[in-house]
């Protein structure tokens, strides 16, 4: 039987952990582990006080690298990274298990305290812990009362230090109790293998261009100062950025702004401006609102000594589907690049010639946004290869619903927007081409495909019609036409809802399609996926939906905005959305493992896209990667996957 060593650390670093991430945190010269709490199995928890020059027991020191001993921790990514740095050892992620990931796999919060409360464990985190962490593990402001020191050591408050040791001990106990509750529903071995790959990808990181990052921040600061100076001269105000001051100035000129100066109201205010000076003041306000270099500032905070950013992806960050979430720089929501000569623009920015940059490419907020992706670069002598799936969610939902005409499209020409438009409007497919009158239907086919798959209605069409290519009066008709063209997908929504509701009401497993089934067990509802993993809905129950006069499924989960634990109500389209995004995630995961097995170095991945960093690159490699990602998946027979890719000297959207 494999031994289990549970670990919890208390540490110090002058680097802000939340803003800069664990890799930059442990790289700080003043980083150190203060307390090392541990326990084997059910043994009493021990705490080693490293500040008192206590040493780890020989067994513990040995077991940190022993492959026969599983190391467990809440948010194990932190513990393994900190231990590797402090002790100068390699912490193989294959030897670790993360209790936080286990909790997220089961739809529980990513907070030990909150997860413990939901599970009702007898031992929970000490509420005093936050204050103790702030006192000992975070730099303090120098004051006269503390003698001007920037850090609190144990001897500054021995009583608090004793409490901190107790807190560390209790964290190990709380993690152990939570883990016992979770152990009834184990995480599949394949997910731990995938987590280990995720850890290696985060350890490897992705290189940033520090010169470009620095110049982008400087360019933004210069432009903002220029706008502010113009606004001061125009209005005579001390601070034109002050909303009350600017509103008063506008009122004096006859322009009342009862609804504020948000971007939603700005077009109407610009139209109502009584003169050119007032209009220009509003334009300056609007332009200053665009000057944002949050991504570049995040890069500057995150970049490590090796000029790479690490820890940008959170495994199982979206616990409703198991998809990754972006962290620190948030690579999952990078702006697209649309200017043609990116290479020239980034070189001008790097040179510091901001005037030329603006002259050639436009206002700095726009240009800097366009260049965010290009701040990610391969190591010297290497190239990026970006490969992604084509219309992965449209393929998965058609496969799951047996919408065969859609699958046939993907098995042949792949032009799903044109084919959908042809089906919706009853026009020949071959006529939906540029130059033909029927090409006007393509926009409707595209928007409907993107908006309607998960039971979306006119509001979903409106949200997806970002270019405003469709008359809003046509939205309801488009929804009906799309549904008429995709009857099996429509039936899938209702079948998924019936299956989930029946499983909870009748306490039995109900099969859906292609290996998907809903299975109730011990206060959970599992949606078993064809890959072998499951989605989890906590404490499911049936409540009558008076609006639609039917039984509806409710469950408990974390609100994505407030992070509070609350009740959620779901329906067929949302259940199908969870299934489709989860299966698409598993397709990506399967191919990441394949690419890793073939020796490709994954630097990062975004949604359905993998970015590998390769020192040698040939047409053969290109064909090989695309071929790997287009291979059939054993657990999804009949799912047509197609990948495409391109190489680049800096990250960009092709």
CATH level-4 homologous superfamily of the domain at 3-187: Ribonuclease H-like superfamily/Ribonuclease H
Query: According to CATH, what is the topology of the domain at 3-187?
Result: Nucleotidyltransferase, domain 5
- Going by CATH, the architecture of the domain at 3-187 would be 2-Layer Sandwich
Strand order of the largest sheet: 11-12-13-14-15-16
Low-confidence stretches: none
The biggest beta sheet reads:
6 strands, antiparallel
Strand-pairing-aware structural class: alpha+beta
Enzyme class: transferase
Catalytic activity: DNA(n) + a 2'-deoxyribonucleoside 5'-triphosphate = DNA(n+1) + diphosphate
Keywords: DNA replication
EC number: 2.7.7.7
Outline the structure in words.
This protein is of the alpha+beta class and 654 residues long. Among the domains are: 3-187, Ribonuclease H-like superfamily/Ribonuclease H (Nucleotidyltransferase, domain 5, 2-Layer Sandwich); 209-302 and 335-371, no CATH class; 404-485, no CATH class. Helices cover 46% and strands 17% of the residues. It contains 25 helices and 19 strands. The strands form five sheets. A six-stranded antiparallel β-sheet has the order 11-12-13-14-15-16, with helices on one face. InterPro entries: DNA-dir_DNA_pol_A_palm_dom, DNA/RNA_pol_sf, DNA_polymerase_A, RNaseH-like_sf. It holds the Pfam family DNA_pol_A. It catalyses: DNA(n) + a 2'-deoxyribonucleoside 5'-triphosphate = DNA(n+1) + diphosphate.
């Amino acid at each position: 039987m494999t031994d289990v060593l549970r670990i919890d650390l208390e540490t110090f670093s002058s680097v802000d952990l939340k803003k800069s991430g664990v890799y930059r945190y442990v790289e700080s010269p003043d980083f150190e582990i203060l307390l090392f709490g541990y326990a084997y199995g059910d043994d009493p928890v021990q705490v080693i006080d490293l500040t008192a020059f206590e040493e780890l027991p020989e067994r513990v020191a040995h077991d940190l690298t022993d492959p026969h001993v599983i190391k467990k921790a809440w948010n194990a990514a932190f513990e393994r990274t900190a231990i590797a740095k402090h002790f100068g050892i390699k912490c193989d992620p294959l030897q670790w298990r993360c209790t936080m990931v286990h909790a997220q796999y089961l739809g529980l919060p990513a907070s030990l305290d909150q997860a413990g409360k939901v599970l009702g464990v007898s031992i929970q985190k000490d509420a005093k812990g936050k204050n103790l962490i702030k006192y000992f593990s975070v730099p303090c402001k120098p004051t006269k009362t503390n003698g001007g020191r920037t850090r609190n050591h144990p001897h500054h408050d021995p009583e608090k230090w004793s409490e901190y040791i107790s807190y560390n001990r209790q964290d190990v106990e709380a993690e152990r109790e939570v883990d016992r509750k979770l152990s009834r529903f184990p995480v599949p071995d394949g997910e731990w293998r995938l987590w280990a790959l995720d850890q290696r990808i985060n350890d490897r990181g992705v290189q940033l261009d520090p010169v470009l990052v620095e110049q982008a921040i400087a360019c933004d600061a210069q432009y903002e100062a220029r706008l502010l100076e113009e606004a001061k001269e125009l209005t005579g105000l001390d601070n034109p950025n002050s909303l009350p001051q600017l509103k008063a100035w506008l009122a004096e000129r006859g322009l009342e702004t009862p609804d504020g100066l948000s971007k939603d109201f700005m077009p109407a205010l610009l139209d109502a401006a009584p003169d050119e000076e007032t209009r220009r003041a509003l334009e300056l306000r609007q332009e200053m609102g665009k000057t944002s270099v949050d991504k570049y500032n995040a890069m500057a905070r995150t970049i490590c000594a090796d000029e790479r950013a690490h820890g940008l992806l959170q495994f199982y960050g979206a616990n409703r589907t198991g998809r990754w979430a972006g962290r620190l720089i948030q690579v999952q929501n990078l702006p697209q690049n649309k200017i043609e000569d990116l290479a020239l623009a980034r070189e001008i920015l790097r040179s510091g010639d901001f005037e030329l940059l603006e002259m050639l490419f436009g206002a700095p907020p726009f240009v800097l946004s366009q260049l965010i992706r290009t701040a990610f670069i391969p190591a010297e002598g290497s190239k990026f290869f970006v490969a992604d799936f084509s219309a992965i969610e449209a393929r998965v939902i058609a496969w799951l619903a047996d919408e065969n005409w859609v699958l046939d499209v993907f098995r042949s020409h792949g032009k799903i927007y044109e084919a959908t438009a042809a089906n919706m409007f009853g026009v020949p497919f071959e006529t939906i081409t540029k130059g033909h009158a029927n090409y006007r239907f393509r926009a409707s086919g595209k928007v409907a495909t993107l908006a309607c798959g998960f039971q979306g209605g006119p509001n979903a069409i409106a949200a997806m019609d970002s270019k405003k290519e469709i008359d809003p009066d046509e939205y309801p008709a488009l929804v009906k036409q799309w549904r008429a063209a995709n009857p099996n997908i429509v039936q899938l929504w209702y079948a998924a809802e019936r299956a989930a509701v029946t499983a909870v009401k009748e306490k039995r497993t109900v099969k859906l399609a292609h290996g998907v089934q809903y299975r109730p067990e011990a206060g959970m509802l599992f949606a078993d996926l064809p890959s072998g993993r499951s989605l989890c809905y906590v404490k499911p129950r049936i409540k009558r939906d008076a609006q639609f006069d039917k039984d509806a499924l409710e469950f408990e989960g974390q609100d994505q905005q407030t992070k509070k634990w609350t009740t959620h109500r779901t329906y067929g389209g949302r259940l199908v959305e969870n299934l489709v995004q989860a299966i698409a995630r598993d397709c990506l995961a399967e191919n990441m493992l394949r690419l890793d097995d073939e020796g490709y170095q994954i630097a990062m991945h975004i949604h359905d896209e993998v970015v590998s960093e390769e020192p040698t690159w040939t047409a053969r490699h290109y064909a090989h990667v695309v071929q790997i990602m287009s291979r059939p998946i054993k657990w999804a027979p009949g799912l047509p996957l197609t990948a495409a890719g391109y190489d680049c000297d800096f990250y960009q959207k092709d």
